[in-house]
Amino acid sequence: MQNITIKDIAKALDLSYSTVSRALKGSYKISEPVRNKVIAYANEHNYRPNLLAQSLKNKNSRCIGVVLCNIPNSFFAEVISGIESVAYTKNYLVIITQSHESYEREIQALENLTWRSIDGLLISLSTETSDCSHIAALHAKGLPVVFFDRVSEDFKTHLVKADNEGGAYDLTNHLLHQGYRRIAQITSPAHLSITQERIAGYKKALSEAGQPIDESLIKYCEHGGMLFEEIETAVSELFDSGNPPDAIFAASDRLTLGTLSILKKMGKSIPGDIGMAGFSNFSEPELFEPALTTIKQPAFEMGKTAAELLIQLIESKRPVTEFEKKVFPTELKARASTNRKISVAY
Question: Which residue windows are coiled coil (predicted)?
Answer without folding.
Answer: none
